[in-house]
Design a protein that fits this description.
Strand order of the largest sheet: 1-2-6-3-7-16
Strand content: 15-25%
Number of strands: 18
Helix content: 25-40%
CATH topology of the largest domain: Aminopeptidase
Bound molecules: zinc ion
Number of helices: 10
CATH class of the largest domain: Alpha Beta
Shape: elongated
Number of domains: 2
Distance between the termini: 19 Å
Order of helices and strands: HHHEEEEEHEHEEEEHEEEHEEHHEEEH
């Protein structure tokens, strides 16, 4: 086990105090102002300098920095303080907007405890831990609003400011979303595709004579498309194709002449928009070859929201530093995070060419009732961060 002095200095009490305080200030997306005021007061009290940047002054982002910019790389730890709302308060055993510690002190309950205020708590204590260290470089935190919604007031705004030269450009980015302490160096992309099926509307009475039921054609299409895709990627796992919506029909007694299905396709590195569209076409064309009345048209990326799969290579110093930290702390070989997981703000940093790794705790009940985080897991995250920072910034 490691004897690195930074591990000894990780302050469990401080992590719990900050995380509890963050959870106790409600900050559903759109309502982040108060929690950011707490962050500023805390940074002031600890002598840590910061700047505030915002599209909307009521939805600020705090960029706090310690160390010696210009003397080495800049690390940015990104965490969001907005949360999803509480839709089922009666299912909670505690007040969701109070940070409540379990009696044994092992768990923190409350909205945002797992996604991801406690992780921001860890980041704030890292600034405190390293603020007087002779860093060869700098350590900053991008504490943002608006992750659970559009990100345009949060991380996307911060990246705009970086591109405009108003904020320094990080060399390495940590994302604190849950990763079960595994190295998450890549994320799947996402593409929406709508398939429009053309039939012929008709009175039900004459359905077998004049009608072509577009809904029945859509059903054939769905059966052709819905399947497990067997191409495993070692950093992100499997791609996904899921048909998630169908629209058809105008009345009980009218054969539908049109139908539309919506596909959500998650891509792994190596796939792109063209390759997955070609795959969808091939599957549908195979049906059309058997059924001349199977007529379809694709609407690719209807909302312009295509996200390319993104990866920070395994030989990046950031990936290597995290792997060494896990090895040093646990004595075990670090694993890549291969899960059925959604996207994080990490994709935006990768799109801007910055090496980015997500490393965070495991949590329970994110977006649901009785959300909680294990304090031991936060301490482990903090130790992995401390080791990674000390290696990348030479202390
Ligand atoms: Zn999150």
């Amino acid at each position: 086990m490691s004897t690195n002095p930074w591990i000894e200095r990780v302050n469990r009490e401080e992590i719990v105090d900050v995380s509890k305080a963050l959870v106790s200030i409600p900050s559903v997306s759109g309502d982040e102002y108060e929690v950011m005021q707490f962050v500023k007061r805390w940074l002031d009290d600890h002598g840590i300098s910061y700047v505030e940047t915002a599209n909307d002054p009521m939805r600020p982002n705090i960029i706090a920095t310690v160390g010696n910019p210009g003397e080495g790389p800049l690390i940015a730890m990104n965490g969001h303080l907005d949360t999803v709302p509480v839709s089922d308060a009666s299912s909670w055993k505690t007040d969701p907007f109070q940070g409540v510690l379990s009696e044994d002190g092992q768990k923190l309950f409350g909205r945002g405890a797992s996604d991801m205020k406690s992780s921001v708590g860890v980041m704030m204590t890292m600034l405190d831990l390293f603020k007087d260290a002779p860093l060869k470089g700098a350590l900053s935190a991008h504490i943002v609003s608006d992750e659970e919604t559009s990100a345009i007031y949060g991380t996307l705004h911060v990246l705009d400011e970086i591109e405009a030269g108003n904020l320094p450009r990080p060399d390495y980015v940590f994302i604190g979303e849950g990763s079960q302490h595994k190295v998450r160096n890549a994320e799947r992309g996402g593409l929406a595709v709508n398939v429009h099926f053309k039939g012929r509307a008709s009175h039900t009475a004459a359905a077998r004579v004049t009608g072509i039921n577009a809904l029945a054609k859509a059903a054939k299409g769905i059966l052709a498309l819905e399947h497990h895709i067997d191409t495993f990627h070692p950093a992100v796992g499997y791609p996904v194709l899921s048909v998630n919506m169908i629209q058809a029909g105008v009345a009980h007694n009218v054969v539908p002449g049109e139908a539309m299905i919506s596909i959500d396709r998650r891509l792994v590195p190596g796939e792109d928009k063209e390759s997955v569209v070609a795959d969808i076409r091939a599957k549908l064309d195979a049906v059309a070859a058997e059924d001349p009345e199977f007529v379809y048209e694709l609407e690719i990326d209807p909302d312009g929201g295509y996200i390319a799969p993104n990866i920070t290579p395994e030989d990046s110093p950031l990936v290597q530093a995290f792997q060494s930290a896990v090895r040093e702390l646990t004595g075990e070989e670090p694993e890549f995070f291969v899960e059925w997981a959604g996207m994080t703000d990490g994709r935006f940093y990768r799109q801007h060419g910055m090496d980015t790794v997500c490393m965070g705790p495991r949590g329970e009940g994110a977006h649901g009732a009785n959300e909680s985080i294990n304090i031991d897991d936060l301490e482990k995250q903090a130790k992995i961060y401390a080791l990674t920072i000390s290696s990348l910034l030479g202390v």
